[in-house]
Structures are given as C-alpha cells and as structure tokens.
Write a structure and sequence with these properties.
Elements (H helix, E strand, L loop, with lengths): L16 H7 L31 E3 H6 L2 H17 L2 E5 L5 H15 L3 H4 L11 E3 L14 E8 L16 H26 L6 H6 L3 E9 L11 E4 L5 E6 L7 E5 L2 E4 L7 E5 L1 H6 L9 E3 L7 E9 L5 E2 L17 E2 H9 L21
Helix pairs in contact: 3-6, 4-6
C-alpha cells in the first residue's frame, strides 16, 4: 500500500465501537454523532421495481449462447453507466470459500481486544485493525471496526499485520483473494467489451494489479439515526467487490439521483462497483458512485471488501476512444501511485478526492 505519512498524525482518542457496545451500550460519544446534514434517514419507502440495482448472471457471460452473452453485456453496460453498481450471481467463486471467509472474519472480530490490537492500523495508514481515514482529533468517526491487508503485489504486504488467530485465517485470505482477483479480471474483460474496447484492454494497461482486502464490522448501535457506519465516498480502485455476510441487516446505501438507496443483498451474490479509475479511463462515461454504510439498532453487520486497481507505476488518463469535440477531456494524466497516496491521506468525503485528477474548466459566461 502507499507509504505511511512522514509527519505524525494526531487523531486523539478513538473508542473501539465493539468495546463501547459491551461496556456502555447506550452511550454514543460525541465524536460519533454526525452533524444534522450528515445523519442518515433510516426509514426508506419501498422502492418501485425499476429502481432495483441491476443483476448480472456471470454464467451467461462466460457460458451463455450469443444472444444471452449480448443481453448480459447490455445489462452490464447499462449498470455501469446508470448505476456504477451491480450485483453478480453465479460468479463461480466457491460458495464454501465465501462462507469460510465470512466465518473467519467474524471470528477475528470476536477475538479479545488485546489480541486484535497486536495488529494496529497506524494513523494515516490503511492496513491493520482500527479505523482508517482519520487525520485529526476533531474528525467525526465511523461506527465501524476495520481490519485491512495489502494482498498484491507482495511488496505491499506488511507481514507483521497478518494475524496468527483465528487458525487458517491467513491461508483462507490467500485463496479467497486469488479467486476474487480472477473474477475482477473477467469482469474487466466484459466491461471493456461493453465500452467497445478489446477484451484485454484494461488487463494490458494495469500491469501487476494492486489488490487489498478489508473486513468491516458494524456493531449494533442504540442510536443509528445519529451515526454513520461508513462515511460517504467513492472508491479509488478500478473495481470493488463486496461480500455481505448472510443474515445481516441492509447497511449499504448508494447515492442514486440524489437519493440514498439501500442495497438489498441477494443470497450468495457479490456487489461490484466502479471505482474512480474506470471513471477517469472512460472520461466519465462510467462514473464511480458515492456510497455509505448505516448502522442498525439491534443487528450486527459484517462485510468483506476487495479493492482492485492498476499498478502504482501506471500512468492513467482518459482513453482516446472517449475523447472528441463533443466529449472533451475531463481528467488530466497522472501516476496511479500518486493518486493512491492522495486517496489514503485524505478523509472520506464524497467524491472530493477525484478533484486530484479533474481538469478545472473556467466559466466564460
């Protein structure tokens, strides 16, 4: 992952939300209480069918006949253009592996605090156990505990942060990450085809892709109307793959048409979203979308997230296929490593980090 900041960051005291829930179940420290404008609305009317997130049947992409393939490519392209999110069913990742990853992640979060604190997430970094994206003593905190690891290439790993407990955790992460990596490459192939590119366009461009995994644990919260599980943000990746643990409450919300829309999990499906990288490469044709997580009064929630992005050495910018006189260039060329460093050294704040790459246009009227 990008290097740690040189100067020390003062983040003040950060309560561990699981411990807070155990010892003071009714207490919400002020650092978790959001300003009125940020607080979630937890009662959402039933959405009409046309507002449901698109669903891709991966088996029809890989094994379907020509008509089925073209139909799925159309759904995928529409999902990327209009939603930035979609769910994938029949994704060929072993369901027993998903269950093992879920169970071991849950076991990790249930370990005693002193055991988890052997793998601390240092302020300003994004690996280890704790809270990421905290940079000041007065910053509002998310109602969430995180555990994150760099996966690929191997030099991004910090071996000291790979836990000894639970047993088989590390080896399961390895196998799981290999399977998700394969899925990402396959999805990028079909996303490229939907954009009218050659299927290997992104794979060739990305070099040795960077991959990281993060587990998020959201304990119940006595006042979910005051807090956020995870602040609104878009992802700096090319693709993000989300596994939502079975039996948990609806927690993920995406910003669609200026409304926060809850994502209803489909059993055994994976949720995929477009990251900032694909937005830049497609010159805004496909857009990364803000999303957030909310807490629940009575139920815990667990999610496992994989981030998949180009090599840090790669230079990125809008591809020539998406730039012409009707669609002028919206983003400058930049080094992906520099963007990654910029992303992880700023707090989560909507799509603000993408300003790094935007070409600022002057208003001449």
């Amino acid at each position: 992952m990008p290097p740690a900041p040189i100067s020390p960051i003062k983040v003040g005291h950060i309560d561990d939300v699981q411990e807070l829930r155990k010892t003071k179940p009714r207490t919400i420290p002020q650092r978790f209480v959001r300003d009125m404008t940020e607080r979630p609305t937890l009662t959402t009317p039933v959405s009409p069918p046309h507002t449901h997130m698109p669903v891709i049947d991966f088996s029809l992409l890989t094994k379907g006949n020509k008509e089925e393939l073209l139909n799925q490519l159309f759904i995928l392209a529409t999902a990327c253009e209009e939603w930035g999110f979609f769910q994938v069913i029949n994704h060929e990742v072993d369901l027993n592996l998903l269950e093992s990853m879920e169970n071991l992640s849950s076991e990790f979060f249930m370990l005693p605090l002193e055991e988890k604190q052997k793998y601390p997430m240092a302020p300003g970094t994004v690996q280890g156990y704790g809270q990421a994206f905290v940079f000041s003593e007065d910053q509002k905190l998310d109602w969430c505990n995180m555990f994150a690891l760099g996966i690929e290439p191997h030099y991004v790993r910090n071996p000291n942060l790979w836990p000894k407990r639970p047993e088989r955790f590390s080896e399961t992460v390895e196998v799981y990450s290999r399977e998700i990596r394969k899925l990402c490459y396959d999805l990028l192939k079909y996303i490229a085809l939907g954009l009218g590119l050659k299927g290997d366009a992104f794979k060739k461009m990305f070099g040795v892709a960077v991959q990281a995994i993060r587990m998020n644990y959201y304990p119940p919260c006595s006042r979910p109307d005051l807090v956020l599980g995870l602040s609104p943000h878009s992802d700096g990746s090319a693709l993000t793959v989300l596994q939502q643990a079975k039996g948990g409450p609806v927690g993920l919300q995406i910003l669609k048409d200026n409304t926060w829309v809850p994502v209803q999990p489909i059993p055994n499906a994976l949720v995929i979203n477009i990251g900032d990288t694909i937005e830049v490469l497609s010159n805004g044709k496909y857009r990364s979308v803000e999303h957030r997580a909310v807490a629940h009064e009575e139920q815990e929630r667990l999610s496992i997230v994989t981030f998949f992005a180009p090599s840090y050495e790669v230079e990125l910018g809008p591809m020539p296929e998406f730039v012409d006189e009707n669609y002028p260039c919206k983003y400058r060329r930049y080094n992906h490593g520099e963007y990654s460093k910029h992303y992880v050294t700023n707090k989560l704040q909507g799509k603000k980090t993408l300003d790094f790459a935007k070409i600022q246009t002057r208003n001449t009227s």
